Amino acid sequence: DHQFAKNEMCRKCGTPKSAATITSAPSPCSSAFDVVEAATPEEVDAFLAAHPDLQYHAAEKLACLDPRMQKVIINQGSLADARNSTAVLLQRCSAMETMKLGDWICPGCYDHQFAKNFNCRRCGAAK
Q1: Is 15:54 a contact under the CB 8 Å cutoff?
Q2: Which of 8-22, 50-64, 72-86, 108-122 has the lowest mean pLDDT?
Q3: pLDDT of the residue at 26
Q4: Crossing angle of helices 56-64/41-49, nearest 10°?
Q5: pLDDT tens digits for 31-55?
Q6: pLDDT tens for residues 66-97?
Q7: Is the dihedral of CA 35, 39, 101, 24 positive or negative?
Q8: Cα-flanking dihedrals φ and ψ of residue 77, to 5°?
Q9: Is the Cβ–Cβ distance between 104 and 32 less than 8 Å?
Q10: CB 39, CB 67: distance < 8 Å
């Protein structure tokens, strides 16, 4: 049965949550992240500490992502100017998880590029 992160045990059978049962679904475009170095736990913690107004579920969503996806999200910049930082972070996480086949991450600036682009829209780096 699918369980939300906040649940300490299965709602259906009562089995306690363990670290072994926590998984994150791989993106169908996980190879797009091969050029991205993984974010360290310290980088993720520092990003979350810089945004104390984030709601718990948004911070948990970021923490559960692949470390390479975390790096891309962190490199998109601060949430300090966002009217609703929780919504912005959730949108960034969703964008990483729903990349289309052929989309790629720029090796220079870690910007998400659509498959049709041969050069990065942000920095001009080649695919």
Answers
A1: no
A2: 8-22
A3: 47
A4: 160
A5: 777 788 899 999 999 999 999 999 9
A6: 999 999 999 999 999 999 999 999 999 998 88
A7: positive
A8: 110, 175
A9: yes
A10: yes
| Separation CA 7–CA 48 (nearest Å) | 22
Q: List for the chain the helix, strand, coil content (%; round to 5).
A: 35, 5, 55
Question: What is the C-alpha separation between 120 and 126, in angstroms, rounded?
Answer: 6
Instruction: Tell me the backbone φ, ψ of residue 59, rounded to 5 degrees.
Output: -65, -40
- What is the pLDDT, as a whole number, of residue 21? 46
Token pair listed for 41: 């736990």
Q: What are phi and psi of 51, to 5 degrees?
A: -130, 70
